[in-house]
Amino acid sequence: MTWLLPRLLLAIGAAFVGFIVGAAVHSATGFEALGLGLGVTSGVALLLVVDAVRGHRLLNWLRGNQQDNAPRDTGLWGELGYRVERAMRDRDRALARGRLELEQFLSAIEASPNGVLMLDAQEHILWCNRVAADHFALDPQRDLQQRITNLVRAPAFVAYLQAGRYGEPLVLGNGRGPGTLSITVREYGEGMRLVLSLDVTERMRNDAMRRDFVANVSHEIRTPLTVLSGFIETLHTLPLTAVERDRVLVLMTQQTQRMQTLVADLLTLAQLEGSPRPASDRWVGLDGLLMRVAADAEALSAGRHALRLRPETHAELAGIESELLSAVANLVTNAVRYTPDGGEVDVAWRLLEDGSGELTVIDTGLGIAREHIPRLTERFYRVDGSRSRETGGTGLGLSIVKHVMQRHGGELLIQSEVGKGSRFRLVFPAARVRQASDSALGDEAAFGGAALSNH
Ligand code: ADP
């Protein structure tokens, strides 16, 4: 009620002015009624003029953008201006808060790895995040208010959206590429719909790989098992001589060993996938490791090849010894297995300029045709299945090598030429290589053939 006192004072002031005017008119003209009339009129007029001026100032402020403060008047108009200004400022603050919350909410949805698309009851796009725009090949600005079914015309999507049965997600090819999307729709508000899209390309690929893997493993195990059960049947039913029995037992042992090797390789792969990254401060002497590999390779070769497998490297590698041993052994035994009698197998080590180290296994064997090289590290991929099995291969060796190298931050590089031989290189990053002496730098022989980097 702070306006009441100034208003009373103003009324008293106006009455006083009216009284003065009335008294002056009365004494000048001698007409009492005229003096009274003019006195009242001038008092009221004064009140009206003051009100008009203040009201005009407030109206002017209201008509503007209200950036500055309302006119700071006393009395009724002052309080009115102040109250209106406060209501406006409160409303502005509430609006700004609401806008900020909306922006935060939208940027949270924008950051979602899933595509989010809001549709009104007529399927017009109200909003979409960048992921959804990418999934559905939309322009997040230009395509707003457009009907989604005019822009995404895949019949399966249109039918799914319009059927209104959203219990199961729709699996759809991606609009921009060969990928696959899983699309879910949720209804909200009055006929509005939220379309959520998820890129499941990787998941589908992994599922397919897993299915292939299980099928391959089953096939690999079934073959020796069938052979074994055939032999067991033979032993049961046929009266064999001692020599025949021995031959059958030797063949059975071979099949059992084949299964053992396969299971061992599968376990190695499973361990590689499930265990943490190798520590970078556990050093393994490369020379000792090569000695062990060479002993096995020499036994496998049984003098059929010229082997040079023990270069003096004086190097140490940081990582897990069993994994490094497995990688190098796989390459060296492959070189022996895929090199005909009389061929050569060499192992060389060199330190590269950037501090990384390269272990190379070179053979003068069968070589590999260019088109097979990119697929060699796939599980169970074999160039020549029968030779691989004959020599005890599982088709998992190079897959294990690639895994080990990835886990150690390195890579496997393959060069090969049919009929000339192959060169498999293990490149270790500088952080995992420690060289005791610089004297053991291997020299790089010129070598033709296709090259592949397996990442
Ligand atoms: P496998 O157990 O069959 O040897 P790997 O994964 O070790 O399986 O090798 C995959 C395929 O790559 C082999 O089947 C073979 O055809 C080819 N391969 C590997 N190493 C050599 C090599 N040194 N020379 C020729 N071919 C090779």
Would you list the SSEs in sequence order as H and E? Answer: HHHEEHHHEEEHHEHEEHEEHHEEEE
Q: What name is given to the CATH topology of the largest domain?
A: Heat Shock Protein 90
Kindly provide the radius of gyration, computed on alpha-carbon positions and rounded to a whole number of angstroms.
Answer: 45 Å
Number of helices: 12
- Note poorly predicted spans: 438-455
Q: What average pLDDT do the residues reach?
A: 89
The CATH superfamily of the largest domain appears as Histidine kinase-like ATPase, C-terminal domain
**First-to-last CA distance:** 81 Å
By CATH reckoning, the class of the largest domain would read Alpha Beta
Number of strands: 14
Q: What proportion of the residues is helical, as a percent range?
A: 40-55%
Counting helices, strands and paired strands, the structural category is alpha+beta
The figure for the number of domains is: 4
Give the distinct bound molecules. adenosine-5'-diphosphate
Cα shape = elongated
Strand content: 15-25%
The CATH architecture assignment of the largest domain turns out to be 2-Layer Sandwich
- Specify the biggest β-sheet: 6 strands, mixed
Strand order of the largest sheet: 7-9-10-12-11-14
Catalytic activity: ATP + protein L-histidine = ADP + protein N-phospho-L-histidine
Transmembrane segments: 33-53
GO molecular function, one term: kinase activity
Domain Histidine kinase: 216-432
